[in-house]
Amino acid sequence: MSTTELLFSRTDKELGSFAVRPLDPFADAELLHGWVTHPKASFWMMQDASLPDVEREYMRIAAHEHHQAFIGLHEGRPAFLMETYDPSELELVGLYDARPGDVGMHFLVAPSDTPLHGFTRAVITTVMAAIFADPTTERVVVEPDVANTAVHALNEAVGFVPERQVTKPEKEALLSFCTRAQFEAATAALGVSI
Fold first, then answer.
1. 117-163: pLDDT as tens digits
2. Is residue 191 classed as helix, strand or coil in its secondary structure?
């Protein structure tokens, strides 16, 4: 798969074009390193990662049968990282009863010196729309750190409903779910077109 191949795209009526492409662990490593080690990415837990560490982590993900990583574009420029995983195989094994059609998700917005109002909400909307573009996806599952209140608010805005706190090896997490119907209702309420 080429890193120029777009897997999903949408246009936000206020912020323009968003798209998702495959991540290349080598070609994108330097870009990712700057993102995951930035102070604003503390919940990503890679603050002290070296460039080879980032390459290794994303090579591991690229080789994994149940984990994928993507680069998100805004107006054609890399602007966010998106990961999906099978929660019955990774991250949440034994912590909840996974259902067929569940997809786990992580996303990280690139640091910016010129933030755009509504950008992060447009990113999570794009991430969710990309995941639900697969007709086999029934529900998106997230497990952000309980202390990450900013992402809890974003998750709620696109339809996530918190279920309970779970203990993972690296954090206390807020297990939350969003069905396709909940996502569609939330985006309709916000007046967002997918």
1. 999 999 999 999 999 999 999 999 999 999 999 999 999 999 999 99
2. coil
**Contact between 72 and 102 (Cβ < 8 Å):** no
**What three-state secondary structure class fits 62?**
helix
The answer to whether the pTM exceeds 0.70 is yes
Closest CA to 16 of 64, 79, 66: 79
SS3 178: strand
Among candidates 10, 170, 171, 163, which has minimal Cα distance to 99? 163
* Closest by CA position to 77, among listed 121, 42, 112: 112
Residues contacting 78, CB < 8 A, separation 6+ = 28, 31, 71, 72, 110
Task: Check: CB of residue 84 under 8 Å from CB of residue 130.
Answer: no
Judge residue 52's burial from the number of C-beta atoms within 10 Å of its C-beta, 0-12 exposed, 13-18 middle, 19 or more buried. exposed
**Would you say 20 and 8 are in contact if contact means Cβ atoms under 8 Å apart?**
yes
Distance (Å, whole) CA 118 – CA 63:
34
